[in-house]
Amino acid sequence: MIELITVIVLIGVLGAIGASRFFDNSVFENRTYADQAKAIIRYAQKLAIAHNRAVFVRVDGNSFAVCTTSACAAADQLAAPGGSNSGSAATRNFCQASTTWMCEGRPAKVAVNASPAINGAFYFDALGRPYNGNDAIGGVSTFQQTALTFSSGTSNTRIVIWPETGYVQ
Fold it and tell me: What 3-state class would DSSP assign to 162?
């Protein structure tokens, strides 16, 4: 009888720990958003090379988007490769409710920090090299190694964009 009660108590404790982790999906949202941002940055670099022109990545703290200019107006938005983005509530909220362009919105529980700070946008030239958004197209790049940190609760995910090559790690 004592063994049975001990087993039931242990199952209850393990179930309580497992249930709390099952219902808190902030870790998964954090990793998913970081992976989406990484894919968007890589997609912008590939588009710049393929189209032989500058392609901008808008980073405003609430979303990552791919555009032909730093302003990212409706006429400047580039389509998502599959024809649509995730269409999540955050994406519809932060990406002007459009699901056809390459833009992903930040989930509520995720915070994004850039070091050094990105002032609105950066872009890739026709060779795939990164430039700060205010650098002249065809000019000298002032882009420095940039680390994007995605945080949610105890979970942190880091993406690094390297100068000169534009490699996204």
Answer: coil
